[in-house]
Please model this.
Amino acid sequence: MKKILSADIGGTNSRFAGFQVNADGELALMESIWLRTEDAFSFGHLLENLKAGGFHLKPEDADIAVFAIAGPVENGTKCSPPFISWDVDISSAKDEFGLKWPVLINDFVAQAYACRSVIGEGAEQVKPGRVIRDAAAAVIGAGTALGKAVILPDGKGGYIAIPSEGGHANFAFESNRENEFRQYLLRELGDTYITWNKIVSGSGLSHIHHFLTGERTSPEEVISRILPDTETLDWASRFYGRACRNFALETLAYGGVYIVGGVAARTPLVVTGEMFREEFVRSDTMSDVLSNIPVFLIKEQDSGLWGSASLGLQKLRQSGKL
Model:
């Protein structure tokens, strides 16, 4: 049976999983492990830490190894992640690490493929609408930063996912009060402009809470203490809804919007309340379109591993190796 090594390498954690393709041609999870990304000083060192951590599937024994990384991928082989201190280059991975078939993708490309796997099938619907299966689906998620991707059918029985670095684009401030928040962030961060990454993210929750209450707390503390009917939750929900609305319009996501990432998984109230839904459909010109687009929440924190493995399975199938 074919074996797939799946990895989701983020700014905080690096997740790995070993999958086996069963007799029905479906994925079966065999093992998984989480490692701290900062404990490795290079990609090669990360693979060494994987072996040292007691992971049974050796990278060189996998029929295909799909590495998802939090950053833009160049030529399918290189990435300089903005939130990791080292680069990844798999152009010589066959010789250097003995990998049979290495694949490098953006981490939200992996999340996109997860949405068209059993993980997506089990997603919680947080806004009603009608899924058009052959249309584009938008995938968005806040964690260390705000990730985005879009996925659509490839015409060959599979899917193709397109990455985005839209989290680095300017945030859309609107009201006078929000512009006060913008000025606060410029002073606090010293940035030349404020991006979505700085607001719809874990650190963004801390910025919002500090601006509104004067209390400095870590993202983990805000997540553990956030309550219904608080201004912090209202602002966080409105901004998340705005991010999802804009991306749904940019991609015309009739296939649905899928929310992933640690912020919503650990604080579902941010995307399940009325404030989120109101902001999502708020548009002077496209409210009817937005009303028909469903929104789903994926709480599975290993969804990226399933997405990477799903792409690996698709590549094995389309290459005739299954």
